[in-house]
Write a structure and sequence with these properties.
This protein is α+β, with helices and mostly antiparallel strands. The chain has two domains: 34 residues, no CATH class; 110 residues, 2-Layer Sandwich (Alpha-Beta Plaits), CATH 3.30.70.100. Helices cover 39% and strands 24% of the residues. Helix 2 packs antiparallel against helix 6. The N and C termini lie far apart (57 Å).
Length: 167
């Protein structure tokens, strides 16, 4: 059996392994490198639009209630952020067909922010906007609490458009 000596920093000196094991190790490393590079490509530069998708999975039978509360108590805030230029676009979608319970989502809200900073930092004006939009804070707080009570899951997903440019 052929062996190769590979310098390794460890007590006891170099390690000897068979050329077959070395070949296997190098193959695994070669395959692992592209896997480490997998994932979405980065979004555009610092001052480029930044898109996030927000998914909501609601308790069965409460989808309409959730949507009504969302449209009443969150959508106006998103519209206000569009007015200020922090958000460029808002789109709310629901799937046309059903899916398995594990992969089910009921609503997807896609926000296109002015840039990545706007997408990843808290708006310092948001508390004032909320008080302006909903002067009856006890009702607003109660309804938002209900919206989250009927929510089973929520996740955020930054997305990158990789559609080739038209030639």
């Amino acid at each position: 059996m052929n062996t190769a000596t590979i310098p390794v920093t460890r007590i006891g000196g170099p390690v000897k392994i068979s050329s077959q094991a070395l070949s296997l190790l190098l193959s695994v490393l070669a395959l692992a490198r592209p896997l480490a590079a997998q994932g979405a490509p980065p979004q555009g530069g610092a001052n480029q639009p930044y898109t996030m998708e927000y998914y909501y999975k609601v308790q069965w039978g409460h989808q309409q209630e959730f949507l009504q509360l969302f449209l009443k108590n969150h959508y106006p805030l998103l519209q206000k952020e569009v007015e200020t230029g922090r958000i460029l676009a808002v789109k709310i979608e629901t799937p046309a067909n059903h899916m398995t319970e594990e992969s089910r989502w009921d609503y997807r809200v896609t926000l296109t922010f002015k840039n990545s900073t706007m997408a990843t930092t808290t708006n310092p004006d948001e508390p004032a906007m909320i008080k302006q939009l909903w002067p009856d804070q006890p009702t607003f707080t109660r309804e938002e609490q209900r919206r989250f009570e009927i929510l089973l899951a929520h996740w955020d997903l930054p997305v990158t458009d990789v559609t080739p440019a038209k030639k």
